[in-house]
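Bumping with the actual sequence this time:
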Amino acid sequence: MPFFQAIAGVMIPVSAVTMVFLKAPTMAVLWAFLPLVPTVLTLVVERAALKDFCEAYGFKVKLRDDLRLVAGAIPYQVALAVAAILAVRKTIKRDNSWVQTEHQATHYRLGAKASHTREQVG
């Protein structure tokens, strides 16, 4: 899946530029927009899930909710495409290292005893 998302992440902007600046046959332009299909299908499924969720809990889907769904889908898909491109680049370079974020580990207190045990929690 990262390979397809990486290709889609590269092809969508390329196809948009191609559509505006190049004269190409209709079929070539349609093939260029093929990576957009899963993105649109994802948005349709998310809208159906939002409607189902709202019906189950007695809410109404407002226009504002739909606009937020569409507006949030764009940066989300961009983030997925960038992450997929980076993952494919690492795969091509055969870099199997794990990128971890740093943390301060402030939740650990050295030498301190836990305030509760497993038996008390469960």
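The tokens above came from a reply further down the thread. The chain is about 65% helix and 0% strand.
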